[in-house]
Structure formats: structure tokens, C-alpha cells
Write a structure and sequence with these properties.
1 helix
Length: 39
């Protein structure tokens, strides 16, 4: 039970980090997009 909760916690942390990275990349793309072409 302890191992399972530990795995869930690790998975949650990893997914949270990935989500933050995707959010940063998306923001970066939104900032760059208007310079390249009009949407």
C-alpha cells in the first residue's frame, strides 16, 4: 500500500512537471506565432 501511494505521488509529480513544461512551451509558441504569421 505504501509503495503504491509512493508510485502515485511520483507519477503525479512527473505529470505535473510535464504539464508545466508544456504550458511554458505553449506560451513560448503563442509569443512567437504573431511574428512569423498572422493566425
Amino acid at each position: 500500500m505504501v509503495i503504491w501511494s509512493l508510485q502515485v505521488a511520483i507519477r503525479g509529480t512527473v505529470s505535473l512537471t510535464a504539464y508545466k513544461t508544456q504550458l511554458k512551451n505553449a506560451r513560448h509558441r503563442l509569443n512567437e506565432a504573431p511574428r512569423r504569421r498572422v493566425l
